[in-house]
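User: Fold this; tokens only.

Assistant: Input:
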Amino acid sequence: MKWAGLLLIALPFSSLADKPLVSRPAIQSVEKNFEARIGKLWPEDPVAFWVYPQGMYINGFGAVFSAQVNLAQGTAITPFHPSVTKEEIDRIHHKKVERMREFRQAMEDILVSSAASLDTVPADEQIALGVSFFYWNWEDTTGLPQQLVMRAPKRVLVMAKSGQTDRAKLSAALSVQEF
């Protein structure tokens, strides 16, 4: 009988705990924006998504989005192209190093723009983007990260989007990790 009473007390609260604060359509909107923004960076030689953006809301932390990209297409080793030349390796490496600064800026812009569409994420929670980079086993990865993770409190991102804070304050609040 004691358990039945506890169950009746807990029942109204369990339905609240099961309901996410952020809807799936809101998460999908950010996923699509993430894909479109990155896909338009270099239209003549676009980034290849190996894993398209995927997001989720984690209660108590915030919204998290991840993807895997190849910043510059290389030459795959095939029976018709059995090896990669030193010039090809250098060209791809140089292109990826050049693109990294603009890619970081695009990730920051995506964070700022996503804050407005994720209006039900509490202001004190985080919005995070994580990108893993794809490299062929023959590539020179010197100076290139395997993974880039950016996150910031939603409150700061909303303030940056609305112009209530400047880039310096946004940069100070932004956590950037490269692995």
